[in-house]
Fold:
Amino acid sequence: MILGTSVSTGNRHAPAHCGSLFTMTLVRLPDPERARRWCAEQRADGRSVGFVPTMGALHEGHLALVRRAVAENDVVCVSIFVNPLQFNDPKDLARYPRDFDADAAQLERVGCEMVFSGTLQQFFPKVKQADQIVTRDPGPCAEGLEGASRPGHFGGVATICERLFRVVGPGRAYFGEKDFQQSLVVKQLARELGFPEIVVCPTVREPSGLAYSSRNVLLTDAERQQATCLSKALFALRRAWHNGKRDAIELRTVMLHELEHGGVQVEYAELRDPHAWTVESPTGPMLRAQALVAARVGKVRLIDNLRLDRDDDVGAQ
Ligand code: PAF
Structure:
């Protein structure tokens, strides 16, 4: 990994007279302090800063967020930090894929101006040991589903997101809808901090329907095939919704049936009102519904979700 250097990239801000000869550089910064200074300079020069926080192992889902950020802001920066505070399973943290140089090469191609990283110590310089870091209360949307399956996860997410937002000072920050519950937690955090605007972008899917995820690279070919049953179950559920099914328990049964057919180990397959998060599963007829699933395929834990009463995400598949 080479940090603190620049490489040539596209011609996003090329003045017209410079044509294609003008190249921008992707700035790679190795620590949050230098990133903070870079972002402060951008803002002082009157440029809006769009931000995409990531843990690296970038895929089409991340690149869609960066492209949207590039379209909506003067400059875009991306953080790559595998945040230990949000992993409740040390094995999951250890095997999380990491390839900074490949990530930087992808970011260059989509017109990101700056990428930064850092160590836990650099993000929390006042603290000597990771276990001394006091994590933020992630709020009520962190309860249930992912929050129940991964204790402490959303506290770790909210804590690092606050730190990253304070480093970057973005006007807008971009998150994927694939992590639906995370997007609720982050919106709550942004409301509490008073910034940034949170832009939630549709899930991007492989042609098979499988949602892009950094963890997909850990699947064998057979498991990757098996993993498509998550999206198949969700889209079957959306068809059931469009055919008039509204009862929460009946809908859930449709989803479980599809997942059991696919042979994955289901952790949860649930419905929630996307505008009113509840810990308990709803019963009775639903007005709006987000279907959410978590399952293990071999050793890999995958999540996916789909809004049933809307289909404006089809372009993202
Ligand atoms: O979604 C992720 O990749 C992470 O949870 C995030 C938002 C970068 C925080 O570490």
